[in-house]
Write a structure and sequence with these properties.
The chain is an alpha/beta fold. The chain folds into 2 domains: about 110 residues, Periplasmic binding protein-like II (D-Maltodextrin-Binding Protein, domain 2); about 100 residues, D-Maltodextrin-Binding Protein, domain 2 (3-Layer(aba) Sandwich). It is built from 11 helices and 10 strands.
Length: about 240
């Protein structure tokens, strides 16, 4: 009798499906890590669905999305994603990116003359070819006709977080980063100032669903969540509201 009972329990354990939480994988630009982390945490709390995240410069992110076959959604700036021509089925706007100049504790920024000062020797910025905020910084400097004057001071790094890390460490006088990341590190730096938005091409942040995704229902659920009041508040808190 005992053997029959054990056999019955074994049959039930095999035949009854185990409920698993839905999961998606989102790849995003490193400068949006704090935003995506907060959105994912809120989404999981509301739905129970899990969100795995991959971060890096957009060239690496799009390459992983294209080649891995595992990425469900990609978040980044529209201009770069449009050029990447990923095979996507759905696109949704998340918010607006803003370029800022951050400075270490003990310093300040009151205008362009500060960048030109002889006391300023190092200005960090993300990769001007691969990072949208590096491109925006370059446009800003050219628009203000000061690029040639500050070029010897420029320290180009790969990503926004790397540019920001130099400010936190006090190893540069200023750094061009995005407002989202600036808010994340606000307590570790002297402050930041948004630059003239007319001096660089507007930055639209979007999320795309990969056509190859095997989790379309979960992707739709996350897209719907992005339109909710709770998600809107998070996006606004990260300085990305239109």
């Amino acid at each position: 009798m005992k053997i029959k009972l054990m056999f019955l329990l074994l049959i039930l354990s095999v035949s009854v499906p185990v409920c698993a939480q839905a999961k998606i994988i989102i790849a995003a630009g490193a400068g949006y890590r704090s935003l995506v982390d907060d959105l994912a945490t809120s989404y999981t709390a509301a739905t129970g669905n899990q969100v795995e995240r991959i971060y890096g410069n957009m060239a690496r992110v799009t390459a992983q999305a294209r080649n891995s076959g595992a990425v469900d959604m990609v978040l980044g700036d529209k201009s770069f994603l449009d050029k990447s021509k990923l095979d996507c089925s759905t696109v949704q706007k998340v918010g607006k990116g803003r370029l800022v100049i951050a400075f270490p504790k003990g310093k300040n920024f009151s205008g362009i003359d500060d960048l030109l000062s002889a006391d300023v020797t190092r200005i960090a910025l993300p990769d001007i070819k691969r990072a949208i905020y590096g491109k925006a910084a370059l446009q800003y400097l050219h628009s203000k006709n000061i690029f040639k004057k500050v070029e010897p001071k420029l320290l180009m790094v790969a990503t926004v977080p790397q540019s920001a890390s130099y400010v936190v460490a006090g190893e540069v006088d200023y750094a061009f980063i995005n407002q989202t990341h600036a808010r994340k590190i606000a307590k570790s730096i002297g402050g930041y100032v948004a630059v003239d938005e007319s001096a660089y091409t507007p930055i639209s942040i979007i999320i795309e669903q990969m056509t190859q995704s095997t989790n379309p229902a979960e992707c739709t659920a996350f897209m719907n969540f992005l339109s909710s009041d709770s998600a809107t508040k998070i996006i606004s808190a990260h300085g990305m509201q239109d």
